[in-house]
């Protein structure tokens, strides 16, 4: 029998992303976000939900652009700190030892050390409640050569992204391969 837990954000897992923006003065900033995901395949889009109180909120609205960096497990400390500290008070890139790179396609930076980056142009803003959802069209994907497989695509076990457990507020690595999507279900 299932037990009712009430209305909570208990969806597992959620990706852990580093959202890159420029503030009004052009200072690069990073923010850790877990309320996010792919939301459309044509055009390719991601959605990131932020509270209005965040420093990145205003930057996305003003610049109409952001990047989504998918940090690998080796960057868990830097990524967590980017979600604790505010870019209003310090340079988060410098504080965590990451290198800002300006996108040539959108008005936003990303961290050079992050193995996979989505460059996004803001398409839609949806006021939901405590959070506002920003839908960004992916205009390019940048990947370190070291994470690209023989098929020319990033390999998840090379990127080593990590996920967030919303209930217990913990980070976890990616587990074992379970089967090919749209194929394993046909096996009986």
From TrEMBL:
Highest taxon listed in the record's lineage: Bacteria
Keyword Zinc on entry: no
- From the record, give the transmembrane residue ranges: none
Q: Which family does it belong to?
A: Belongs to the flavoredoxin family.
Question: Which Pfam family would be a valid example here?
Answer: Flavin_Reduct
**Keyword presence, Transmembrane helix:** no
Q: Using the record's annotation, list all stretches that form the Flavin reductase like domain.
A: 10-164
Sorted UniProt keywords: Flavoprotein
Q: Which InterPro entries would you find in this protein's record?
A: Flavin_Rdtase-like_dom (IPR002563), Flavoredoxin (IPR052174), Split_barrel_FMN-bd (IPR012349)
The prosthetic group or cofactor this protein requires is: FMN
**What is the protein named?**
Flavodoxin
